[in-house]
Amino acid sequence: MSRKIIAALAFAPAVVANSCPGSASFVHASCQVSVTADATCLEVMSEMEARVAGISTGAWHDPHNNGTYSQQEQGAAELAFQRTTGNKKYTDKLKFTFEDAPAGTCKIQGCSESQVFSVADFSTNYCKLRMLYCGSHEGCKPVQKDFAITETSVSPSLGASKNPADCLKTMTMSQHFLSVQAQPQCPPSGFETVKDYDLDSFISKRWYIQQQMETKYLPKSQNRCVYAEYKLEHKKTLLGYDVAVHNHAEEVAPPHTVHDSGSKICAKVVDKARGKLEVAPCFLPSALAGPYWVVDYDEGAGYALISGGAPTLPAEEGCKTGSGTNDSGLWIFTREQKRDEALVQKVRAIAAQKGFDLSVLNDVDQSDCGSIAQSRVAEVVFVSSCAMSRKIIAALAFAPAVVANSCPGSASFVHASCQVSVTADATCLEVMSEMEARVAGISTGAWHDPHNNGTYSQQEQGAAELAFQRTTGNKKYTDKLKFTFEDAPAGTCKIQGCSESQVFSVADFSTNYCNLRMLYCGSHEGCKPVQKDFAITETSVSPSLGASKNPADCLKTMTMSQHFLSVQAQPQCPPSGFETVKDFDLDSFISKRWYIQQQMETKYLPKSQNRCVYAEYKLEPKKTLLGYDVAVHNHAEEVAPPHTVHDSGSKICAKVVDKARGKLEVAPCFLPSALAGPYWVVDYDEGAGYALISGGAPTLPAEEGCKTGSGTNDSGLWIFTREQKRDEALVQKVRAIAAQKGFDLSVLNDVDQSDCGSIAQVVV
Is 113 helix (H, G, I), strand (E, B) or coil? Predict the structure, then answer.
C-alpha cells in the first residue's frame, strides 16, 4: 500500500517526457502551462533569453523570491533553463516549446519541475514559467519586447499553486516546498513588536491606510480613503481606556458612503514600550478589548505596520491573524496620503520578514479623496463612578444624531435603529404613493416583504411625512419607522427615513435598515414595485452600533427567532437537533451531474472560480486500498476571461461513512481516508432536482446563524441542482431549507452557470 500512496503523489498532470525536463525525485511539485503570445515565436524566445541574460547585467530581475535563471539548452523551437531560489537552496528545471500560429502569434508550452521531494510549492513552479513570458499588463518588466499573453491552461500538480500575485513578491519561507502535512510555526519563533515605542509621536498626526486585511468589521467594499487618528485621554477612563480612536472609511462603489466611527472606539495601553494596545467600542469594559499591536514604526520614514495581535494561524504563505472581531487584522500605515509604492513594498518586506502571510493584504484607494480636514477625536467623558453604569447604558443608546421629529421614538432606552438619506428619481408624491401601495398590497397579495415575511401597517400621513409599523413574520416584534420627503430639482425627491426597534436590542441583522429600504427600493435592487419603479441612490445609511446594513439581507428570510441579540449573545452551534438527510439513496444521488448554483468560499474554492461549476460521482467497483468508495470529479472556471479551467480529474475520492444519513468524507485520493474531511448531504430531493451539501455540521457562530470553517476540512456549503440553468425559485427554496437548518446564508455566493457552452458529461 505504501507504494500505492507514493505512486499517487507523482501527480504531475499528463507530463510527457519530451515536454518536461524531468526530475531526480519521484515525488515532486510541477506545473504545465499553455500560453498564446501576441508576438512571433522568435520574438518570444529572444525576450526570454534577454531576461535571463539581464540578471547578470542588472537589466532584469526575478521578483519571485529573487530567483536566478541560467540557460541550459536552445533549439529551433525549444528553450531549457534552470532556476535557483534566492536563498541558493533549491534548483528547479523548466522547458519551453514554441509553435508559430496564425496572425503572427506564438503558442507556448511550458513545464517546470522541482528536483527534490515536494508537494506544496507556493506557486513557485508556475512563477518560474510565467516570469519569462508575462508582460507589462501582468505587472512584469520586459527587456526587449512587450507583448500580450493569454494563459489558456495552467495545470499545477496536486498541492502546488498557481496564483499570479505570488509571482511578483518575495516568498517568506526558507524553502519552496512542504509535505502535505507540514505547517509553518505560528506565531513565528521570536516574533516581536516594535521596541522603544513612542506613543506620543505615533498619535501626533493622522495615519493613512495603504493596505489592510479584510476582517468581519473591515470589508473590502470599504477600502477607500481610510484613515485613523488617535488622541490621548487626560486620564484613564472609568472603563480602563487611555486613547480615543477615530476611524474613517468610504465605500469603494459610488456614491462612496462614509463609515465614520466618531467617538465610539477606544484603546488601552498594555505595554507602552513595545507598542501593545487593546481596542474595543468605548462602552465595553477594557477587559473585553482585542489586541492592536504596533509591529514596526519609523516616524522619519513615515510608516507603521499594525497587527491585531500575534499571527497565530498557519497560512499558505506564512502566518496570519484571525478575521473576526478580536485577534484580527493587518495594516500598512503611512503619514502621507498619496501612495508611495516603494515605501509600501518596504513595509510589506518587513511584514514578510516577521512571518506574516502577505496575501491577506488588499490595497486601499487613497486617490480622489478630496480635502479631508484633520479632525480631533471627540473626548469620551465619564463623570463619576456612581454614574458609570448609566453612562455605559447611554453609550448603547447609539442611534446616530437622532432628531426627535425625524425618528418615531422607542419605548426602550437601549435599542437598535437605522437612519437613511435617499434620493429617488421620482417626485415625492410618486414616492409616497408607491410606499402606501406596497403596504396596502400586503393584504391584497399585490406585494409582500421578503425580509422575514414582515407586515407593515400605516400609522400617519402628512403632506411630506409617512409613519408605519412593521411586525416580524413570527409576530413577536414590532418596529416603528418614519419618513419625511422634500422635493428636489429635476423632479427628484430627497427622503429621510428612520426605523427604531421597540425593545432592548443591539444587533438587528439589518432589520431596521430593511424596514426602510423595502419601501423605496426598485427593480434595480431586486425589489418588486407596485405602481412606479424608480431609481434610488442611498447617500447615507447609518445603523446604530451593533446593527447592520447589508442590502442582501433585505431579500431573504432571517432564521433567528428574534431580530435582536445582546452584544455577547451567540447562536447555539451546531443548532440543537441538527441532522442530515434521512434514507439517503446514494445510487440515485450519483446517477447524474450536479450543477452548483451557490457555494461558500473556502481555502480551496475561491470566489474567483465561481463559474460553470459542476460535480460528478462514480461508485468504485470495490473499496480502494486507501479506503475510498466513490470517485469524485469537480469542474470550475475562472470568472474573469479567458475563463481558465480548474478540473480535478481523477484526483478526488470519497468514503461513505453513514450511507443512510448521507454522510461521506472527501480528500485527495493519495491521502489515507482517515485524513478525509466531512461532506454531508443535508437535504436532497431527486424529484425536485436539488441537494444541500455541507462540509460537516456548522459549528461556528456567525452573525446570521451557524457556519462551517473555511479551511480544507470541516468547511463549505453548496446548493446543487440537476439543471444547469438557474431556477431562482428552487434556489430560494433550498436557501430556506438551509436557513431552517440554522446555516448562516451570508456565506453563500452565486455561481454563474450562463454561457458555459455545451459541457459534455464526463465519466470519472
Answer: strand
pLDDT for 171-224, tens place per residue?
443 333 333 334 567 888 889 999 999 999 999 999 999 999 998 678 899 999
Same domain, 21 and 86: yes
Q: Which of 363, 396, 419 is the last residue of a domain?
A: 363
- Does residue 286 sit in the same domain as residue 224? yes
- Whole-angstrom distance, CA of residue 564 vs CA of residue 567: 9
What is the per-residue pLDDT across 696-748, written as a single tens digit (0 to 9) for each? Answer: 999 888 767 889 987 778 889 999 999 999 999 899 899 989 888 889 898 99
377 DSSP 8-state letter: P
What grid cell was written down for 205? 498626526
First to last CA, the chain: 23
Instruction: Please report, for residues 422, 527, 529, 536, 667, the alpha-carbon distance to residue 523 in angstroms, rounded to integers and kept in the order given.
Output: 16, 5, 7, 10, 43
- Residue 311 has which C-alpha cell? 499571527
| One domain, residues 161 and 300 | no
Which of 514, 512, 499, 506 shows the shortest CA–CA distance to 545? 506
* Grid cell digits, residue 169: 513578491
The SS3 of residue 217 is coil
Q: Report the largest interatomic distance among the alpha carbons of the chain, rounded to a whole angstrom.
A: 88
Q: What residues make up the domain containing 54?
A: 2-168
Q: How do 677-685 and 663-668 pair as beta strands?
A: antiparallel
Distance CA 749, CA 710 (A): 14
* Residue 450 covered by a domain: yes
